Amino acid sequence: MKCQVPLLVGTALVLSLVLLLLQTATVVKADRLQPKGYKETVEKLQKFYVSFEDKVSREFRRWKQHGTMSSHFRELIQASAIRKSERAQEIRELPTAREGPLCAICRGFGGSVLEFRREGASREEVFNTTVDLCTMLNLQEESICRGLIELNIDTILYIVDNRPDLSSASLCAVVFQSGACLLDDPTFSEWQVDVDPNGTPVTASKAGTAQRGPNDLKIVQITDLHYDPNYRPGYNAVCGAPACCRESQGVPEDSENGAGHWGDYRNCDMPWNAVEDLLERVAEDHPDADFIYHTGDIIDHGIWETSIGYNVRSISRVIEKFRETFPETPIYNILGNHEAHPTNVYELGEISRPDFSTNWLYHLSADLWSQWLPRAAEQTIRLGGYYTALVRPGFRVIALNNNDCYTFNWWILFQPDALKGQLQWLHDVLLQAERANEKVHILAHLPISSDCFSVWQREYRRILERFRDTISAQFHGHTHKDEFNVFYGSENPEFAVGVAWNGGSGTTHTDVNPNYVVYYVNPETYEVTDFESYAYNLTLANMAPNERPAWFRMYSFQEEYGLSDLSPAGVDELIQRLGTPAGRAELRRYWEYKVKLADASLANDCAEDCLLNHLCEIVTNQADDLRKCQELSETFFD
Q1: Of 377, 326, 374, 317, which Cα lies nearest the Cα of 219?
Q2: How far apart are CA 142 and CA 346, in angstroms?
Q3: How far apart are CA 457 and CA 255, in angstroms?
Q4: Can you give the pTM of this predicted structure?
Q5: Is 614 assigned to a binding site?
Q6: Which pLDDT belongs to residue 96?
C-alpha cells in the first residue's frame, strides 16, 4: 500500500508527544523508575495537553455539528489509537514512555465528551459517541465497547451532571495516576484521617525474632478464583476480549487456540472443575488448617456483560463450595473489585439514586459469611462490605473493602473525601486493639502498592506507621502474582515498617499457574514465620484432562531466601541483597515464583530492566513516592 504523508497536524501532535517522552526513555531501566529529566519533560507536557485538548475539541465539535468526521479528525484518532497488546495490560504494567501519550488521549477525547454532555447531549447521543470513539481508538472491539459503556454510562453521567467542576485533567489524573498526568484539584487531596498522636516516631526497622515452630498456626490463603460459568474446554482462547474460552465465542478453526480442560494461560478464567479441584486439594492436603483467608475476586473477567443476578449466582455457588469443603474451618472472606456490578464500581458517600447502590452485594455478603463471623460484624458488612472479628483472645482480623480506592471506581471522581470513612474506621479499630493488647492481621483485596488512589495510599501509610506494632501481617490479592510488598517510613524511608503478602490466584488469567499459599504464624506474636506456595503446571494438567492436576510445593519463603525471620527488618535485608548484582540470581528466582513457574511467562523471560521493575514494585506503596525504587536502582547495576 502506498504510504500516506505522516506529518499532518493531528498526527504530528500525537507523535511529537511520543517523541518527547522517548527522548528520555532510553535511560529508563524499569517501568517504575522515572528517567532523567522526567520532571522537566512533564512540565512541558502540561502545555501540550492543553493544546491537544483544544485541537481534539475543535474537530469533535465539527463532527457533531456536521455529522461527518473531517479527514483531519480521523488522522487524529488513527494516531491516538492504542495498541492491541495494551488492551489486556493493567495501567501499572505500561512503560513510562506511554504515560504521556495515554494521558493526552484521555484528556483530549474524554474532555470532548465531557463538554458534549454539558452542552446538552442526551444519554443516547453520549452513548453512541463514546461507542464510536471506543472502537476507533481501538480500546476494545465494538461489542465489548457497547457492553462496557452501557453498564457504566449512567454512573458516569450522574457524576458529570452533579459535579460541574470535574475536569478532564482531574478525571485522567485519577485513572492513570502517573507522574505525567498531574492532579492539581485540591478537593481530591485535602482530606485526612484523624490519627491518634500518641505513636512513636519511626527510628528503626520493625524487627522480629519469631521462627517457624511446631505450634504455629496454619492459615491458608485462597484468592482470585475468577470462576467463569461460561468456560468451555475447546472454545476460543484467542478471542481478543477481556475474557475468552467462553461458550459464546465458539470453537476456533485452529485447535491450538482452543481452551484447555483445566484452564488456559491466555485471557481465560477458571472452569468449575478447576475451582472444585483447588478447594478439595486444600482440604485434603491441609486438614489441620486453623483458618482460611479468602481475599476476593470470585467473578470472571467478562466485565462487559455482568449483571446483579449473574454475580449473585457465581458468588453464592463458590461460597457454598467453601462451606461444603471446609465445614469445620473458620473462613474470613473479603470482596474483590470484580464482585461489584458494574465491575470496580463501589458507591461512596450518600448517593440519591438507589440503582447505583452496592447494598445488594453487602447484604448478600453479610448473609453468606454469617456462619463464620460474630453478630457484630454484620453491621459494617451491610454498611460497606468490611468488618472486624476477634479470632481468639489477643488476635483480631480486620477485613477491608478497599475496592473503594481502586482508580477505576468512578465514585472517587464524585466524592473523594468519602474514602475517609472506612479508613477512619480502620484507625479506630486499631486504636482499640492497641489498648486491648491485641495483634492484628489486615485483609485487603487490592495491594496498597497497586491500583489504589494515591491519597488513599498516603492515608493508609499514616495508619500503618502509627500502628506498626499492632499490625502483625497484611494479606492481599488482585494481581494474580505470588509476590509481597515492604512498607517504609514516609518520613524515614530507610526503615521498614510493614510487610504485605499476596496470595497469587486460582485463575490462570493471564500467563500464570493456579496457586494457593499456606502461612505459618507464631501463636503469640501472630507474625508470619514462613509460608509455602503450592501450584500445578497448567500445560501438564491439560495434557491429562482425565486426571486431577499434580499439585506441588513450589517453594518455602524461609528456605528459599534463608532469612533470620520474616519481620519487616528481616525482609528488608533481602531487599537490599536483591538490589545488587550479587542478588541477581535470587531476584530472577523471585520473578519465576511470582509468575508461579508458568510456561507462558517463563518463555517471555525477564531481562535486567524487567527484574529491576519487579524489585521496585516490592518497595513502592504510594504512586507518587518512588524514593526506594530510585535508591535501589543506584546499586542495581554496580
Answers
A1: 326
A2: 26
A3: 45
A4: 0.94
A5: no
A6: 67
Cell of 177: 495516576
Measured torsion, CA atoms of residues 424, 425, 427, 433, in degrees rounded to the nearest 10: 160
Q: How far apart are CA 225 and CA 109, in angstroms?
A: 35
Amino acid at 23: Q
**Of 585, 556, 575, the residue nearest 635 (C-alpha):** 575
The CA radius of gyration of the chain, in Å to the nearest whole number, is: 24
Dihedral (CA of 162, 168, 170, 173) sign: positive
Distance CA 295, CA 216 (A): 22
Give the separation between CA 318 and CA 323, rounded to whole angstroms. 9
Amino acid identity at 89 = Q
- Mean pLDDT, the chain, rounded, equals 92
Report which of 358, 404, 347, 419 is spatially closest to residue 159, judged by C-alpha positions.
Answer: 347
Question: Is 226 annotated to bind ligand?
Answer: yes
DSSP state of 39: H
Structure confidence at residue 159 as a pLDDT band (50, 70, 90): very high
CA distances, 451 to each of 58, 404, 569, 617 (Å): 33, 11, 26, 12
- Exposure on the CB side of residue 271, measured as CA atoms within 13 A: 22
* Surface-to-core class of residue 92, CB atoms within 10 Å of its CB (0-12 exposed, 13-18 middle, 19+ buried): middle
337 is in an annotated binding site: yes
Q: What is the 3-state secondary structure (H, E, C) of 348-415?
A: CCCCCCHHHCCHHHHHHHHHHHHHHCCCCHHHHHHHHCCEEEEEECCEEEEECCHHHHECCCCHHHHC
279 and 265 Cβ atoms separated by less than 8 Å: no
Reading the block at residue 85, the C-alpha cell is 497488546
Portion of the chain with pLDDT greater than 70, in percent: 92
478 in a labelled binding site: yes
- Whether 439 shows a pLDDT value over 50: the answer reads yes
269 annotated as belonging to a binding site for a ligand: no
Cis peptide before 342 (omega within 30 of 0): yes
**Backbone torsions φ then ψ of 276, nearest 5 degrees:** -60, -45
Q: What is the dihedral of CA 403, 405, 410, 414, to 10 degrees?
A: 130
- Beta-strand pair 552-556/528-535: antiparallel
Distance (Å, whole) CA 173 – CA 167: 10
Query: CATH 3.60.21.10 region(s) of the chain?
Result: 217-228+269-636
- Grid cell, residue 512, equals 500464570
Can you identify the CATH homologous superfamily of domain 217-228+269-636?
Metallo-dependent phosphatases (3.60.21.10)
Return d(Cα 525, Cα 102) in angstroms, integer: 46
Closest C-alpha among 502, 487, 556, 439 to residue 296: 502
Q: From CA 274, how far away is CA 357, in angstroms rounded?
A: 33
Predicted local distance difference test score (pLDDT) of residue 308? 98
pLDDT of 23 reads 35
- Inter-axis angle of helices 38-66 and 9-25, nearest 10: 160
* Sheet with 395-399, side-by-side order of all strands: 387-392, 395-399, 439-443, 471-476, 496-502, 484-488
Q: Which cell numbers in the block locate residue 19?
A: 517523541
Q: Tell me the C-alpha distance between 250 and 230, whole Å.
A: 11
Tell me whether the omega of the peptide bond preceding residue 510 falls within 30 degrees of 0, making it cis. Answer: yes
Q: How far apart are CA 527 and CA 523, in angstroms?
A: 8
